[in-house]
Amino acid sequence: xxxxxxxxxxxxxxLHEQQENEIRKLEERIASEMPARGTAPPLSQKVAFRALPLxxxxxxxxxxxxxxxxxxxxxxxxxHALAGRDILGAAKTGSGKTLAxxxxxxxxxxxxxxxxxxxxxxxxVLAPTRELAVQxxxxxxxxxxxxxxxxxxxLIGGKHDFFExxxxxxxxxxxxxxxxRLLQHCEQTPYVDWSLLKILVLDEADRILDLxxxxxxxxxxxxxxxxxxxxxxxxxxxxxxxxxxxxxLEKPEYLGVHDLDATSTPASLQQSYVVVPLKDKLNxxxxxxxxxLQHKTIFFFSSCAQVRHAYDLLCTLRPGVPILALHGKxxxxxxxxxxxxxxxxPHVALLATDVCARGLDFPNxxxxxxxxxxxxxxxxIHRAGRTARYRAGGKALLFLTPQExxxxxxxxxxxxxxxxxxxxxxxxxxxNPNKTVVLGQRAASLVVQDVAFxxxxxxxxxxxxxxxxxxxxxxxxxxxxxxxxxxxYANALGLASTPKVRGVEDRDGLRAKKNVNRKLQxxxxxxxxxxxxxxxxxLGQKGSNVLxxxxxxxxxxxxxxxxxxxxxxxxxxxLPDAKVNEVTQRRPTKKIRVEGSNSTENRHIKFDDEDDxxxxxxxxxxxxxLAAATDAYAEKVRERLRRNQDEDEKEAKERIREKxxxxxxxxxxxxDSEADNGAAAVLGGTxxxxxxxxxxxxxxxxxxxxxxxxxxxDSVDLQAQEAQALALIRGK
Length: 732
Known about the structure:
By secondary structure, the chain is of the alpha/beta class.
């Protein structure tokens, strides 16, 4: 094997010596050029990246990615970050916050000699969504092209194999991850030295610090060293002392470069809102699509079920523009495919939840339509910020129901009680009646004919009502108390009857569960079960009592400590009645030790054949108690069965009623179709075959194949079916 000689350059120094000299010069420049604490450069000051003390590899990566002049947030944050200070960075959406932390991150690793996989993990970037983590990774690939020996890992779950990530994480220098996936590796991946971490970055920090991710973040921080540099960035930066105390920041520099601006949104963003009744939201959405076929639009909904319902409906009706859907219920492979597809298409409509509201850089988006009003001002800013990014223009439109408009949504939520109306410059607009398209019975007929469509429509209704009930503030604006509005909305979705939505008693508890990583919880339960199985295998038959105690829980229970399987013995009044007879069959003389909350000291109990005899009176009392307990339990079971029978009868009646309603709707559609065909024949037989949908064709075939029985006979048959169904239920 031939040994390679170290590379030398023209000046005769090796590559390692060149890097050491560069690091020494950079540290000297940083020490002499670092800005004073609490200062920020003037806004709109054009400064090139090459004016900063950056290594040559970073500068070449920025040049090849066409990043030459810094934005305001980059010019303000990067010098402070290079000096090793903690930073709270706040800037409007699309202002270049990603480079504001990626550039100092690369420089920190370079100056701390973390360049190769063997050097350990030196930096972590946390993002609230998988799509944002992927986008950060792509930007880092561009500007870090010449840091070729740096090992970067993307930990986002989904299709990525967890075992493969475990094998590679020990040889990674920089990690971009979501909080749940990173916590999973912290708890389950060995051989990772978290104590070497130099810098931690939180993108969309206010979202990560809120109730949804806070618990996961706190548990992750337990594995990370306190002595580290921490950078927080967001368009709506938090300054809550309690939240920031969690991160152990040391004299952080708050750099809000746009705090003095007259508006909280980009100046190139045109914002307006329209008042749309709840039952007409789908009509307004479809009408907008039909009149904006040559645009790139994002529609935001409040729940995944609403996105799925609108997507299925629009794909069936075919408005004339490609339709995509992106929400949290999709697999990671599908989410990535949809995200990339939306980036490529010039004219497309994306139906999405708030999973797309933060951080994602969608190029050339013309419109952002918020079909459902966001819960707070910050979420409105992030949603609207998907357009008008950097120096481009864009338009944002908000749909408000009459109740939300009359309740003062604009003043109480968007302006946050601030009397300065220019903070979010939004104006009221109206819909052009000449451009409106009413879906009418087309949506209802689709729902009636397809069972899967009916199910998703029902879920969409329930999820929307629950989203209103879970709004954190201003219940007088969001809560719908008029049943007629809900009935009309259910009919607009194509439902024959209004679904029942169970009440929300513990609103705070349910909101805390909105971002629970259920896959992570399932994995933890699986690991616990595997450990328990190993424990059982080790203990064998002798560990049955220990297994029983573990299954019952490990808090507040007495633990029986014994090397062999033992039965209960002691004062009979402390023992279960079912164990009394078993105690008498024990072999003589055995000592056990009992520890727990029921004993104040260790007790040694001697079992003798003479002392173990239980008199007949006590046996009789124990038997009577057991019989009484059995009767009480049986009565509870009978009562529960009676209640279930009543509920089953109610559900059966409701199903029959819905069946009748669907039949009436189907008959009405058939009569309308026959009337239209007759009118067309009278007028000369105009050919409408191109305009007839598959659904209309199926309805026509069904109508021609019917036997023409009278409505009276149908009603008699339906009544007989109803009586037979109720008789079967009562027979159960």
